[in-house]
Amino acid sequence: MTKLSQVFAEIIEYNQKELCWIVSPELGKFLYKKALAIKAKKILEIGTSIGYSGLWFAWALKKNHGILYTIESNKYRFASAEKFFQKSRLAKYIVQIKGHAPEDIPRIKGKWDLVFFDATKCEHILYFQAIKDKLRKHGLLIVDNVESHKEAMKNFLETIVNDENFEVNIFRDFDKGILVARKIKPLAT
């Protein structure tokens, strides 16, 4: 078992005891493959939890020579993620931000190749407003729990589905439902 495999297993075991809301291994692999496929060099994750999805991204970013910015508001999950990132030996590909995404997103410079939402569901509309100008053309937005938490995300889902700047696909039967949106044209300024 590789060092990274051991850390993934440790996170899954920790989550079974503490319930920290991590993505499934299948979704983790999907995120990894998407990041590799688009050759992502800069990824934003909103909702670090204890670092499971972040490690899938960091693994891809190691190969792509990129960096993950990951935001978490809960100090205990933030600290747990930091510990797991260090153990994985992928910490140099990760910038952890402890804070509230709608306020912290504007402080991060540059554009992203991929953005992943897996945080407070009723705030997804705020995250979307904060990231849509900063996602590069052809960049991806991936959102978890669109089926299991669709009521909490109703405003966000209606907004993105009707935004002509994005091509949206919803996979209701994958995990707890995921949305994959590709930015097809830059926003008018």
Outline the fold blueprint.
Blueprint: H1 3-18, H2 25-37, E1 42-46, H3 52-64, E2 67-72, H4 75-88, E3 94-98, H5 101-104, E4 112-117, H6 124-131, E5 135-144, H7 154-161, E6 166-171, E7 178-183
Would you write up a description of this structure?
- This protein is α/β, with parallel strands linked by helices and 189 residues long.
- It has a single domain (3-183), classed as 3-Layer(aba) Sandwich (Rossmann fold), CATH 3.40.50.
- The protein is 40% helix and 23% strand.
- It has helices at 3-18, 25-37, 52-64, 75-88, 101-104, 124-131, 154-161; strands at 42-46, 67-72, 94-98, 112-117, 135-144, 166-171, 178-183.
- A seven-stranded mixed β-sheet has the order 3-2-1-4-5-7-6, sandwiched between helices.
- The chain is globular and about 45 Å long.
- It starts with a helix and ends in a 6-residue tail after the last strand.
- The model has no long low-confidence stretch (mean pLDDT 94).
